[in-house]
Predict the 3D structure of the following.
Amino acid sequence: MPTPDRLLVPLTLLITLTLTSCSAPDPADPAPSTATAAEDPAGGSAEPPLGDGHGAIDGAAEVAEPQLHLITLDPAGSVELLDLADETRTTLGEVPGTTATSTDGRYLFASSAEGTLTVIDSGVWTWDHEDHFHYYRAEPRIVGTVEGDGEAVVTPGDSGTGVFFPDSGEGMILDKDALGKGEISTVTQVSTDPHTGMFVPLPGSLQLLTGAGPDGTGDTVQAYDADGRAVPDASAECVDAQGTITTRVGTVIGCDDGALLATVSNGDVEFERIAYPAGIAVDRATGFSARKGRPTVAAVAGDQGLWLLDTRQREWQFLATEQPLRRVTAVDDREGHVVALTDAGTVLVLSSGTGETIGETEPLLEETIADPTLLDGVELVTDQQRSYLNAPAEQQLYEIDFADDARIARTFPTDDAPVFFTETGR
């Protein structure tokens, strides 16, 4: 099996996306702008036509600004949406037994240890058109479930959502258009040996599946076409594959020696290996987080600090911290803000240029830290202006202004413990 550092594989794409004339070069840090739309009486905009090339979905309204919401699940599985604009709350139903969640900025994917994956549509999303954005709003709902063996690993992508069941080795790509219509269907299905791995969508009709290694972890990455067939000579070594994220540049998968960056251009899959810098003996990255779509991503480096991976420059940067970190995310704005949650429950704002701490909150999770069973669901998410943190035992959600010395901008009390949460509408 070929495993060179760079592999180019010809492939005919089955899906072609035609962009409209509003495309333009990608700026370094695009500020949100508004697409032209007819105003409706409620102050939003008229329903956009289906398939207009701007992320429009039949039944959704295009609006003038992002419709940011926080979505939470409490211990009983009650799903609640909090509108960050007017602070109204909407209860969607119950998804009991949730043990892990993930999101693509619109849908929340709630996995259970028994193998049920529930898809929740927040009804708000942003369409990234590279040099500007379009914003949409529809009715939120619980779409349905996917059944498998054990807790699913979910990896959202631009063209679909990858679902992999490690206990059985079964993988599938959920049809993004069908989800928007309130239906669950798959566009690709694959089967491999059971292992700790992932099935990762790429642009168009391609996807990456980790291959089972002798120790039960992923040790290779193989490209598959829309029919679930392995693309010949389209694989790369990735020992102990853990963690993935999609940036403006491509898709990252963490390996024991660094990162594997996969990009697609003109029907070719290209793999590039980004090795860790020599002489830095710290723990590897096993999970990545960043402001959606940005090229620089962050990862916790054991108890020594954090890693930053610049996918444009293809280079790692290690920042040491005095306090061990539990979560970290890269804002990747012009000021180079990095936001981190320490093991002590404080939120730090760091400079990616110097590693200096430029803001710090008081401890926000003292009661949650005292109950370790709640810590797995604690998340730190960031958009262009704010960071958000859930505090389950405290029954609070925090909005943090990272550009203003980690100031607590707003606090939202919850009726029960927000054991899982994320931000949607991004």
